[in-house]
Amino acid sequence: MAITDHVNLDQFMAGLKRHNANEPEFHQAVFEVAANVFDYIADKEIYHEMQILRRIAVPDRIIIFRVCWEDDNGNIRVNKGYRVQNNNSIGPYKGGLRFDPSVNLSILKFLAFEQTFKNSLTGLPMGGAKGGSDFNVKGKSDGEVMRFCQSFMTELFRHVGEDVDVPAGDIGVGAREIGFLFGQYKRLTNRFVGVLTGKGMEFGGSPIRKEATGYGTVYMMDDMLQRRGDGLEGKTCLVSGAGNVAIYAAEKLLHLGGKVVTLSDSTGFIYDKDGLNAEKLEYVIDLKTKRRGRLEEFAREYDVEYHAGEKPWQVPCDLAFPCATQNEISTAEAHTLISNGCQGVSEGANMPTEQHGILAFTEARVMFAPSKAANAGGVAISGLEMSQNSERRTWKRQELEKLLLEIMGDIHERCVEYGKEPGSDYVDYVKGANIAGFIKVADAMVAYGVV
Ligand code: NDP
Question: What is the structure's pLDDT at 3?
Answer without folding.
Answer: 44
